[in-house]
Amino acid sequence: QVRLVESGGGLVQAGGSLRLSCAASGIIFSMNAMGWYRQASGKQRELVAVISSSGSTNYADSVKGRFTISRDNAKNTVYLQMNSLKPEDTAVYYCWGSRRIDYWGQGTQVTVSS
Predict the structure, then answer these.
(1) How many whole angstroms separate alpha carbon 40 and alpha carbon 66?
(2) Is the distance from CB of 29 to CB of 76 less than 8 angstroms?
(3) Cα torsion at 33, 80, 107, 95 (round to 10°)?
(4) Adjacent-strand bridge partners of 81
(5) Could you give the CA distance from residue 83 to residue 66 in angstroms, rounded to a whole number?
(6) CA-CA distance, 40 to 60, in Å (whole number)?
(7) What is the rounded CA–CA span in Å between residue 114 and residue 102?
(8) Which residues of 48-68 are buried (b: 16+ CB within 10 A; e: fewer)?
């Protein structure tokens, strides 16, 4: 059974930092692309950052220079370091994994106060 379990969300003031973690099980982690999406209230889910199985990364323009995605294949975990947070970063953040099919975590709330 595939499981993606996020942690690290919470409430932070604007300008602050958070690090999200996503622990994966039930998949060959190193062979999966991994990433983070987010969905703000009343909006569609959007891509935040992805990291391929080889380690190449891609970011949404809105987070470039502020967020960093990384992976630890030994720990089957993907991270999202979020710095200089803004109120518009407030959303539920979802972990995503993909090889032949997509997998999703249950989401973790990130709230940035102004």
Answers:
(1) 18
(2) yes
(3) 0
(4) 19, 68
(5) 5
(6) 15
(7) 34
(8) bbbbebeeeeebeeebeeebb
Angle at 33 between CA 89 and CA 97, to 5 degrees: 65
User: Would you list the DSSP string of 13-27?
Assistant: ETT--EEEEEEEESS
- Residue 28's SS3 state is coil
Q: Give yes or no for a contact between 18 and 10, defined as CB atoms under 8 angstroms apart.
A: yes
Please choose, from the candidates 84, 112, 107, 111, the residue with its C-alpha nearest in 3D space to the C-alpha of residue 36: 107
Write the DSSP symbol of residue 42: T
pLDDT digits (tens, 9 = 90+) for 5-41: 999 999 999 999 999 999 999 988 988 999 999 999 9
Place of tokens 């967020």: 67
Per the listing, tokens 């102004």 go with 114
**Can you give the pLDDT at residue 101?**
93
Mean pLDDT of the chain: 97
Q: Which amino acid is at 42?
A: G
Could you report how far apart the first and last alpha carbons of the chain are, in Å? 40
